[in-house]
Design a protein that fits this description.
This protein is an alpha/beta fold. The chain contains 11 helices and 6 strands. Strands 1-2-5-6 form a 4-stranded parallel β-sheet, sandwiched between helices. Strands 3-4 form a two-stranded antiparallel sheet. Helix 2 crosses helix 3 (about 75-85). One of its GO terms (molecular function) is catalytic activity.
Length: about 270
């Protein structure tokens, strides 16, 4: 989020969205599931550090000399955490939205086998070996997997919106982003305020894991994490956009009280 609410920007992290890439086998006809399961990912080289470098450049451009409120969803929380450690002067607050927030020296992938991650449904949707392909790969065009994709990512989203969102999903999530150990310091990352938005229906990042992340953030931070609960699945920006926007706006207003007062006075 930039220095003005009217100038807020959304940037996909490297390896996702418009910065993502599909394996060629996914696009060939007739479709060959075996080829799709073994083709090396075109985004295998993306790491948390390389994505954070890109993000820091975006923050410099968006903020135009002023620190930004940085909102990070899901695995983008890893990138935000690295960026916050490297460039704390560019960030006025980090808002984690049901996001991975590894701060204790372990990679995000470490948490996949932790007890707090019990009940997650994402790994069951993978169609390839991440160690072989370099990506957490999903086949978003598989009709048999479609109901599970909708349940996992968009469980409380209306069918039409969920269908549109699934059609835009990036098939490959870089394993390098989740596999890189992340360490932060109280002197840099710990000086930045943090808010964690817990999604109570999430089946990608279970509630217990979200709460563990907040506890680990608190262990290295100068002030406690602000925790806000949303009765939503993994994608509240689609199921509860107004509620989510108001929460983020309240964080922004707290960081820029003088601008909010000026807007109210107009």
């Amino acid at each position: 989020m930039s220095s003005s609410l009217s100038m807020s920007e959304v940037e996909p992290v490297r390896g996702h969205g418009l910065k993502g890439r599909s394996p060629q086998a996914r696009l060939r006809q007739p479709f060959d599931p075996a080829a799709c399961a073994t083709e090396p990912s075109p985004v295998a080289g993306v790491t948390a550090s390389s994505a954070a470098e890109t993000l820091i450049g975006q923050l410099r451009r968006i903020g135009n000399g002023r620190p930004c409120v940085l909102v990070a969803h899901s695995v983008a929380g890893v990138v935000a955490t690295v960026a916050a450690e490297q460039a704390p002067d560019l960030i006025s607050e980090v808002v984690y939205l049901s996001a991975f927030a590894p701060v204790s020296g372990s990679p995000a992938a470490h948490y996949i086998t932790e007890p707090e991650n019990a009940g997650e449904m994402l790994t069951g949707l993978l169609v390839a070996d991440p160690a072989q392909d370099g990506a957490f790969r999903q086949d978003t065009g598989d009709d048999e997997r479609y109901p599970s994709l909708q349940e996992v990512f968009y469980g409380d989203v209306d069918d039409a919106t969920a269908a549109a969102a699934i059609s835009l999903l990036t098939p490959d999530g870089p394993t390098g982003m989740a596999g890189e150990p992340v360490t932060v310091t109280p002197q840099r990352y710990g000086t930045i305020p943090h808010t964690y938005l817990v999604c109570l229906q999430d089946k990608v990042v279970p509630v217990a894991l979200q709460r563990r992340f907040t506890a680990e953030i608190d262990a290295v931070s100068a002030r406690p994490t602000t925790v806000v609960e949303l009765d939503a699945s993994h994608s509240p920006f689609l199921s509860r956009p107004d509620e989510l926007a108001e929460v983020i706006a309240s964080v922004y207003r707290a960081q820029r009280p003088e601008e909010h007062q000026a807007q109210v006075a107009r």
